[in-house]
Hints:
Elements: E1 2-11, E2 16-32, E3 35-52, E4 68-70, E5 74-81, E6 91-99, E7 114-125, E8 128-143, E9 146-149, E10 152-160, E11 165-175, E12 189-199, E13 203-204
Antiparallel strand pairs: 1-2, 2-3, 3-4, 3-5, 5-6, 6-7, 7-8, 8-9, 8-10, 10-11, 11-12, 12-13
Amino acid sequence: MGAAVHEDQRISLAGAWGRLFEFGVFQATWTFDEVAVRLGGTLFRLFDPMGTFAEPVADTRPPDGSFRKDAGDVRVSTIIRLTGADARYPAALRFGTRLPTTDNREGLGRDQADFFTTLAVRIPDGRWDISLEAGLGVNGTRDIEHEQIDPILFGAHVSYDAGPVRPFLELTGQHDPRIAEERRGNENIGEARLGMRTGGRRWVK
């Protein structure tokens, strides 16, 4: 459970940029032998507008200087371990959905359901721990002429066990190579996160 503040954040559907606050960013996982069920998302988002970069899409309220408030995304996924518990390079299949929990009028997210499936492999090497993940998504859009896109999903995680702390680098994103024009709310995106984790069974990241 946590919170986040994003500076200079673009809100694509509203055509605005500013400061985005996220409260109740959560993730919980229930494990049953080779299968795990994961629930994650953001309970509440608050957007402080500072400017615009495009006209809002249809049915999204135009910028008027006021805050935008809405529920965040909720994702439900299943993770199936494909290798034995003692495998040198563990592999897993993940699939799930992003639920349509947002309000199109506020423009902080798409009130559309998405489906995703990825294949992941973990490569432990001494103090280093590397995970790679790739797959496909089926995303709903706000464009009535193109109601679906099918992006490639990718992610990577690299961490180093330095004793009391574990610094890490994460990469994640999506890319649809089959479209000439990006769909608002479904742009090709990539993100890098640099961080640190400390603790054992109870930890802070």
